Amino acid sequence: MTERQTPTFTELVNLASRLLGAGVVATNEDSFADAEHLLLAEPAEFRPHTFGLKGQIMDGWESRRRRGRSAEQPHPTDEDHDWAIVRLGAAGRIHGVIVDTAHFTGNYPESGSVQAASIPGHPSPEEVAAATWTDLVPRTPLRGDTAHEFAVTDPTRYTHVRLNIWPDGGVARLRVHGEVLPDPRDLAGLTFDLAAQEHGGVAEAASDRYFSSPHNLNAPGRATVMGEGWETRRRRDKANDWVRIALAGGGEVLAVEVDTSHFVANAPGWADLLGYDATGGGDPATDAEGWFEILPRTRLQPDTRHRLRLSGARAATHVRLGVYPDGGVARLRLTGRLTEAGRASLALRWFNALPAAEATAALVAAGLTGTEAAALTAARPLTGAADLPAALR
């Protein structure tokens, strides 16, 4: 089984994106500026001398100034701190976190930490607050007006994160980059967008990202402006641009949608789609001979959603969208279904990343005894999906 390539964590999907469905579940304090600002997609802005009823308007999360307990103890203790809990838009393995204090200079926290928890289902704020939390980023000094990048090596699948700041202050943005790991039981038997971020599709590589990111191609929802798509610079040679996407799992693509919405004078003239099946261990990044045609080179129209059904289906773990010669595409959608091998591979990655209690519970629900489930959970990481009960693969 071929492992997925892992680019720099900032190139991975932001699991804390509002587009994916992330939200602030709870915070103990946001008197100056709403904690929901942490999740805004655009970079934080600052407009000096712009005051509201609570003071200077800040584009971020800002808590009130902490005070001590009495005149004799006017300062907060070393442990007094504020926090905000974020439900990730998609559960997954976290590879890195960015705590950005942009524009907070005289009012940034002295230090901060990031914790994570896995809470199945649709928990209430009270259930989330009572969960067991694991340190991803231990308490660390913070600086003002700085994007602090923290790599994370914890292999566990998480659903929530908690940002803690000492003793108070403001943070502009929180980014939680990682690998989406959907529950394979939710996708079994369904047709869905195999390329979608919310299911684990990842834009692994692109020939050009001059004007905008290839990650926009498989982002949730429709693009509302040109800048929410993928656009390349103008080519001055005879080659073409492309994006390679790792699918949620090995699957059969049944229909393709190439959406050039908002690209009018800069849409590609044509596009094609190639597939690659890495189930046998090949590398799509280096094996030029392993690619096969899914969609032949097809004429595109500007500002148009092109919906194209395919006459045949062949299993693929990766696709490569080619545009000729250059230009912009708003979205790529690949309606299909997981193959048996694709679902098994996804199930294995998901199971190996679950917290132990959840892994054991999943095995019991699949028919194993408590003793058998505990023994199989302790044997992780499993190397083959055949070790999983049939109900999970």
What tags apply to this protein structure?
393 residues, Jelly Rolls, eight-stranded antiparallel beta sheet, 5 helices, 22 strands, flat
Shape, principal axes of CA atoms = flat
**Percent of residues in helical segments?**
10-25%
Distance between the termini: 15 Å
In the residues, how many domains can be counted?
3
CATH level 1 class label of the largest domain: Mainly Beta
Please state the structural category: mainly beta
Mean pLDDT score:
93
Poorly predicted residue ranges: none
| Percent range for β-strand residues | 35-45%
Order of helices and strands: EEEEEEEHEEEEEHEEEEEEEEEEHHH
Q: Please count the beta strands (DSSP E, at least 2 residues each).
A: 22
Looking at the chains present, what oligomeric state does this protein adopt?
A: single chain
Describe the fold and architecture:
The protein is mainly β. The chain folds into 3 domains: 9-68 and 78-180, Galactose-binding domain-like (Jelly Rolls), CATH 2.60.120.260; 184-340, Galactose-binding domain-like (Jelly Rolls), CATH 2.60.120.260; 355-392. The chain contains 5 helices and 22 strands. The chain has helices spanning 125-129, 184-187, 340-353, 356-365, 370-378, and strands spanning 13-14, 23-27, 51-52, 55-56, 61-62, 82-100, 111-117, 134-141, 147-151, 157-166, 170-171, 173-180, 192-193, 202-206, 230-231, 241-259, 270-276, 292-299, 305-309, 315-324, 328-329, 331-338. Strands 1, 2, 6, 7, 8, 9, 10 and 12 form an 8-stranded antiparallel beta sheet that branches. Strands 13, 14, 16, 17, 18, 19, 20 and 22 form an 8-stranded antiparallel beta sheet that branches. It has a two-stranded antiparallel sheet with strand order 3-4. Strand 3 (51-52) and strand 4 form a beta hairpin. Helix 4 (356-365) crosses helix 5 (370-378). The longest helix is centred in the C-terminal third of the chain and has 14 residues, at 340-353. It is flat. The chain starts with 12 loop residues before the first strand and ends in a 15-residue tail after the last helix.
